């Protein structure tokens, strides 16, 4: 039995890690071990899959709570919903309590009888990194994945003779599972003869050895929608591993990372832009031109006497809202920059200014008020 590494250890975080720190840890490791950055490195590819699986569980509050309580056992036994099969809408499947209750009460409640739960090939995960501009406008990205696809030699049947060489499983009669009496209960489990496929092959294909699938590298064009956020997971139905022998393919999950931008910082649908102003600009007032995430420019009027920390709101100049034509707002954050490397004339002018300003308490009200409070503090101490 393979040893399963603790998901927290896989992501190199503590069990009390916050959601934000968990996302940062995942993003750092995903970028380090991504197959595109480690071509031909099987160990890096395996590590990337482990990281993605661990993050898929721990980023979800319900899955994380189940993992913290039950460990890997919470995702075993073939149930749906989790990476190993835990079903958060019930107790799991494949012989779990959900199947037991269905056998007991299915007829009375009008539920199904017979006919197994739909199986599919394994889901696979990959990672793609995009720029903030691409996240704003949406983009189509090519992603490379190594997966299992239908065998071309036998057309996915697993038989050298094609469909004619495939027979209905004699043990489960095509249901893919068998029932067993356990005391008062009737439990359903995957058929041990066909392993849940519902079909058997007499003369296995020499290429895929009867599995119906072979490993292959594929390139898919994935459409990233406008407004997507860092850490978003996109599900592409049917693009996972082929199931083989008539079983539908699994799904592909694409984890999206948005790289940091040199000018903008995003917070939901709003964007922040930090703009440094010269001391003279802030004191006298000015008009500046700033970039907008959509590639345009806009002008912002800065009033005289503007201080560091002042915000200016530009409505509708922010980020795209996912699945909507709306946009957030853009906020200009002002910082007043102190001049450096002054020449003799500049120093002389500033000294004259300081002398003039020192006699006018209204020119620097915060400065004057602060040192007045300092003076009172020491007088009271005395």
TrEMBL record:
Residue sites binding Zn(2+) 2 per the record: 169, 172, 191, 194
Cofactor: how and how many bound: Binds 2 Zn(2+) ions per monomer.
Keyword line: Chaperone, Cytoplasm, DNA replication, Metal-binding, Repeat, Stress response, Zinc, Zinc-finger
InterPro entries cross-referenced by the UniProt entry: DnaJ, DnaJ_C, DnaJ_domain, DnaJ_domain_CS, HSP40/DnaJ_pept-bd, HSP_DnaJ_Cys-rich_dom, HSP_DnaJ_Cys-rich_dom_sf, J_dom_sf
Cellular localisation: Cytoplasm
An individual GO BP term: DNA replication
CXXCXGXG motif repeats: 151-158, 169-176, 191-198, 205-212
Domain of life: Bacteria
Span of zinc fingers (CR-type): 138-217
Summary of the function given for this chain in its UniProt record: Participates actively in the response to hyperosmotic and heat shock by preventing the aggregation of stress-denatured proteins and by disaggregating proteins, also in an autonomous, DnaK-independent fashion. Unfolded proteins bind initially to DnaJ; upon interaction with the DnaJ-bound protein, DnaK hydrolyzes its bound ATP, resulting in the formation of a stable complex. GrpE releases ADP from DnaK; ATP binding to DnaK triggers the release of the substrate protein, thus completing the reaction cycle.
HAMAP family named among the record's database cross-references: DnaJ (MF_01152)
Family indicated by similarity: Belongs to the DnaJ family.
Comment field on protein domains: The J domain is necessary and sufficient to stimulate DnaK ATPase activity. Zinc center 1 plays an important role in the autonomous, DnaK-independent chaperone activity of DnaJ. Zinc center 2 is essential for interaction with DnaK and for DnaJ activity.
Subunit structure and binding partners: Homodimer.
Protein name as annotated: Chaperone protein DnaJ
Native source organism of the sequence: Acetobacter orleanensis
